[in-house]
Amino acid sequence: MIQLAVNIDHVATIRQARGESEPDPVAAAAIAELAGAVGIVCHLREDRRHVQDRDVQLLRQTVSTKLDLEMAANDEIIAFAHNLKPELVTLVPEKREELTTEGGLDVASRTSYFHELTKEMQRHSIEVSYFIEPDASQIEAVHFTGAEVVEFHTGTFANARSHAEQRAQLKRLQQAAEVAHHAGLRVTAGHGINYANAHLMKEIPHLHEVSIGHAIISRAVFSGLDTAVRDMIALLK
Ligand code: PXP
Fold it and tell me: Which residue range is the domain that position 200 belongs to?
């Protein structure tokens, strides 16, 4: 069965819209865990537009499943991660002007740098995941870094405007999953997965986990977070 990690960034987005203390992403994480999430994901962005340092520090103390800190390879955040020691860090590209993470990280163009970064995280007892496009050259580069996990960007699949395009993107993910699995990487995926397309994740071989934020938090506005998480888990079964 594919497991679900819940990204709680957008609970913080709503809080930041008023600059007050609610809704609290730390409370959201507890509800998501009780509903069956196997991990909590949050992205501490350089501009702190949603998740704040305080959130991550409290999540470190309260999350009882697995804390996955999404982050750019930026010196300040790297030092933060070394101190925090989440179970997992997921390295993503980050641009200030983007609304959300656009595209995967180009690991292949800086393999030596990412190899060093991975070793340093592992010396701090942190597992490492890279968020990449489902391309063989990027998978090979992630394998070279010594990371344990790969997360495939599912955005192009999620944005497909025709059935044929969706099937083509699914095939790309299936092939990439085979390559990554044979390289010994744990295979995960995320971005744009929602209640209409999540069932297709079951067609990706070796897929261990998906990371979902926007669709779950959006549905939670109407149904409550507990129901939103349970409904997603049911689709992944
Ligand atoms: N995985 C990664 C690496 C991401 O950057 C994001 C978006 O923050 C997600 C998963 C979740 O994407 P979505 O919010 O579209 O479910």
Answer: 3-236
Domains of the chain: total: 1
Q: Which of 70, 201, 207, 236 to mutate to test the pocket of ligand 1 (most atoms within 8 A of CB)?
A: 70
Q: Which amino acid is at 79?
A: A
Give CA separation, 154 vs 157, 190, 197, in Å: 5, 5, 11
**Which residues have C-beta within 8 Å of that of residue 87, sequence separation ≥ 6?**
39, 66, 67, 68, 126, 127
Q: How far apart are CA 27 and CA 63, in angstroms?
A: 10
For residue 129, the Cα-to-chain-centroid distance in whole angstroms is 9
Predicted structure pTM score: 0.97
> At 106, is the pLDDT very low, low, confident or very high (cuts 50, 70, 90)?
very high
Q: Of all helices (H) and strands (E), which one includes residue 4?
A: strand 3-7
Residue 52 has pLDDT above 90, yes or no: yes
Query: What backbone torsions phi and psi does residue 85 show, to the nearest 5 degrees?
Result: 55, 60
- Taking the C-alpha atoms of residue 231 and residue 225, their distance in angstroms, rounded to an integer, is 10
Q: Which atom of ligand 1 is nearest to the CA of 70?
A: 3
